Amino acid sequence: MAGDDLVIANAVSDSFTLTLPAAASNSGKVYKLKRIDNSLLIVTDTFIDGDVTVGSDTINVATHPLVDLQKVQLTSSGTLPAGLSLATDYYIIFVDSDNVKFASSRANAVSDTAVDITAAAGGGTHIITSQSTLITIDANGSETIDGSLTKNLVTQYEQWEIVSDGANWQIISHKTDTGLIDGGALVMDATVTAPTYGTVVDNKLTWFRNGREFFGHYKFEQSSAGTAGSGLYFLPLPPGIVADTTFLTVDTTTSAIESSSSIGHGVATNSSTGGLAGVTLRDANNFTFGRIEAIGKFSNTTFSMADPGVELHFYIKAVIVDWEA
To answer: What's the pLDDT at 8?
Structure first.
């Protein structure tokens, strides 16, 4: 048998494709393909105009979680410092644990060529958000990996082990288990108009995967009223997590949610009432929730983010796509 090769892949800067050599000319060859970065995990941090040093193009972000060459985008409640733009990919130049610079490309980040910031006086809070990335394994032309043209490395430490049978690639093993992952804050949407949060006390999804199963705990609390929006509220699963709707029932109703499609449970309370809640699958990428209003029915249409005392606690379990153990 040909020798084994271990390929270590890091997608902290961007998504990319690993193309395998032709299986037809590598019979018996074994590859282990492992992802080591954690770019599936979306991290955010903030800065204000006073944190910007224009002369050196440096941003002070105390004890930030960002790493060198990481791809990010910027938003702002005011106006970004001159030289920076919204909805634009930037790459982190790591200065130290409290300071970063932004580069316009990965190559510029490697060469320590920062974006020229000419002024910082627009006001508001500026938000840095990392961008999730994906590593695609391409079987090479019309060849396949267990019948598929491609497979993906989605999360940190995920590993595929494959072998060539002389015509195609066959999977030996797929290691997918993770430890607890801090999924950060979630942004709530709705079927008609998205609500907005009030003063947020807590907003955090913690999750892990075991084979083809996703397990999550979500906690949200606000101490002042947001806006209600309209329609049925729903929240996103983490980037890269796709629920397997072959096994799970999707509930697209806009009022009472059927408990038969439940993927979790918990508690939903506001300043005056509270009670048990159910979690159901909105679609393959989002989940919704509702207080138990009647036997076999949940509803969040009577639950409003305009209430100052909203608290949510959910436990979620779902079968996910293409994450065989």
So the answer is: 93
Query: Burial letters for 122-157: b for 16+ Cβ neighbours within 10 Å, e otherwise?
Result: eeeebbbebbbbbbebebbeebbbeeeeebbbbbbe
The H or E element spanning position 52 is strand 52-53
Q: Which of 147, 126, 165 is nearest to 25 (CA)?
A: 165
- Shared domain for 235 and 294, answered yes or no, is yes
Q: pLDDT digits over 225-245, tens only?
A: 999 998 888 999 987 788 998
Q: What percent of the chain has pLDDT over 70?
A: 90
Task: Clarify whether residues 203 and 304 are in a common domain.
Answer: yes
Query: For 156-169, how does the pLDDT look when each residue is reduced to its tens digit (9 = 90+)?
Result: 888 999 999 999 99
Regarding whether 153 and 9 lie in a shared domain, the answer is yes
pLDDT digits (tens, 9 = 90+) for 79-116: 999 999 999 999 999 999 999 999 999 999 999 999 99
Q: How many domains does the chain have?
A: 3
Say if residue 191 is in the same domain as residue 276.
yes
Q: Is 50 helix (H, G, I), strand (E, B) or coil?
A: helix
Per-residue pLDDT at 282 exceeds 90: no
* Chain-centroid distance, C-alpha 245: 19
State which residues form the domain around 237. 181-319
Sign of the dihedral defined by the CA atoms of residues 87, 220, 248, 169, in that order: positive
Q: What is the CATH number of the domain that holds 139?
A: 2.60.120.640
